[in-house]
Amino acid sequence: MTDHGTLEIRNVGKRFDVAGQTVAALSDINLSVAPGEFVSIVGASGCGKSTLLRLIVGLERDYDGEILLKGNRLAGPTLGRAIVFQEHRLFPWLRVEDNVALGLLKSTLPADEKRRLVREHLDLVGLGSFAKAYPAQLSGGMSQRVAIARALVNRPDILLLDEPFGALDALTRAYLQAELRRIVRSEGITAVLVTHDVEEAIFLGDRIVVMQPRPGRIAEILPVDSSSQHDRASPAFAHLREIVLNGLGAHHPVLPGRLAA
Amino acid sequence: MTNLELDRVAFEAAVADQPDKPSGGQVAGRLTEGLRTIAAALVFPAALLLVWSGASRLDLVPAQILPDPRLVLTTFREFYATGELAFHAEISLFRVLQGFSLGASVGLVLGISMGLSQRVRELAEPLFLAIAQVPPLGWIPLVMLLVGIDEALKVIIIAKAAMIPVTINTCKGIRNVPRNYREVGEVLTFGRWLTLTKIVLPASVPTVFTGIRYGLTNAWLALVAVELLASSEGLGYLMVWGRQLFQLDIVIMAMVAVGLIGFFLDWSLGLIERWLQRWEVVGT
Amino acid sequence: MTAVTTTSGISGKARTKQHWNGLILPAVLILVWEAASQFGIVDARLLPSLGTIAGRAWNELAEGRLAVDIAASLVRYLTGFAIGSALGIPAGLALGLSRTLDRCVGPTFNAVKQIAVFAWIPLISVWFGVGEAAKIAFIALAAFTPVVVNTWAGARSVPRDLAEVAQVLTLSRWQRLTWLAIPSALPSIFVGLHLGLIYSWLATVGAEYFMTIGPGIGGLMTEGREHFHMDLVILGVVLLGGIGLGLNRLATVLETHVLSWKQH
User: What residues contact residue C22 under an 8 Å CB cut-off, 6+ apart?
Assistant: First the structure.
């Protein structure tokens, strides 16, 4: 799964025609994701972060600039890029294991190999004993874990996540954030996460990409290098959060002298 | 600073750009889209018509099996000019409205009483359902023996056809008035009458009206069947007559008339339904 | 105001009482009927006693004629329904999944389906005669329309978010059809099949009136009417009702079974 410069986004822009006018949803996006890296993209609604993700996964194909995966230009979805949406989007008429197996429908592996992979990935997300259940029997958090398993079962080069925990309650969200971090680290997965939750972005990311809207562009990119910055309880975390919020253009009263540069 | 405030910033930003009224270019765009839809819809029937007239002209099919479409058109014009088509169509229309009014009224009364009273439902429902199982056509021989083949037969069968869906849907509509609304009535100390007139009946209108629409459709269906079997005027009779003379042009003309009237009846009810439900919030 | 009670909220004892109450009216009706015919209040020809009807039923059964009629009706009903559905489901899927077909063929279909189904009988009788083929063709036509309409609606409303998943997983057209489109349209397809069952049965009875060659319940009733044998006619009515009820039950059971993933 490791390759030099896994994802390259160069001078990418995206324009939409809305009510006869051209709106630039994205402009001048440049980003490089290294293998095994976890990049968090954070920004308010309307900054184009979801659009960017859809461009990367291939659901939208019309854009300016280049997106390269492992050096190859992208045209439409391939199994090398997997995505977890905000809704779990499981097929309600398929059992959990069949939903995960959907990810392998296009692969040419032998059947028993596919079964093994499905079982492995269900265990990875902690739902091994729910293989035969139907999505309607699962909670929101569990369904989203199945969606993650479905995305990973193909061993993609890169995992994309579009506000994956946005629809869940706060407790489940915290739990799944920890789970996602565990899974990503244990498998060495390259990932790009889009979220409007700043704390989630810092908790999970190795780098934080701050985006601003109209046009959607990258305002700054912040590294998260010390392990203390990942710890929610630490002052380093809070400090980084302030910087990110500032970068997002959200103004709030700050005691003079509190923010060090 | 919380995420809530972050979203507020975004919200204010989004509210700032609102799309304006459609520009001239957009209106033109929508027009061509509409024309394209109509054109697409006409391609297939035009092709069919071509094949049909081609087959007739080349005598590939005998005229008794498939008349020339131009003949159908001529026949239509003739019948229209002599007023014969209008005559039969009016008779059919009048019959169906008669039968439908009878059946729908009975159905409403029955449905309302069954919907409001558990007792009535317990008593009447099993028998009603048993009768409903037998299709309206199934009653024809029975009713024929009892009242002969005059108007009474047709009205009764058509009424029965209309009554069943109206009763079922009215009963369902009344029973399914949400508890919430009824509770509002209780809190506002509505009596039985007020609850009925202000809450139950208005809330049940959508479902009841669905039943009425089905009832009219069924009534029209039954009318055609009954007229085919036992009638000396009406569109059904026209078809039987044309069939016996092997003049399929008459048959086809009558079929088109049946289709048009059937469509018109349902469409009119659809308009009334939309007017009745103008208070309905989009999406509920 | 009578309280609204649902069946699940009633105790077993109350439910039994419900069932007994339901039998009151029919029982009264039967009593009145028997009395009327026994005491000659109504002409025995118009309203034969239950005994007469039962006796008639027994006779017909013994002669084997009843079985033949019922079997004949059921066979042509099921055949017609099967043909109509087998043609209707692919047609509905095609209309729902292909925008071109939806726009080109759809409006024509919607226009032609306005013609009340019985209006097709004269035409069908010319094209197919008055034998089995004609009846089955008519029954198939009656099933075809609701099956197409509902399958079409179901195929059109494949959820967009699931369609995107299929895109991302690079599923082929055929895979999208079998794993996504058809299962998602299945509830609608079943509604269509259920309606098709009902309309086919209506059409069966109708076909037997108009195309009178061959055995069948409709023929039984027509014969009864022509010879003023009311008991035969009533027997026919009871048979129709009973079979209709049985079919309805069957359809509901099948529906619940196949769509079991929805119950949870």
Answer: B122, B123, B125, B126, B127
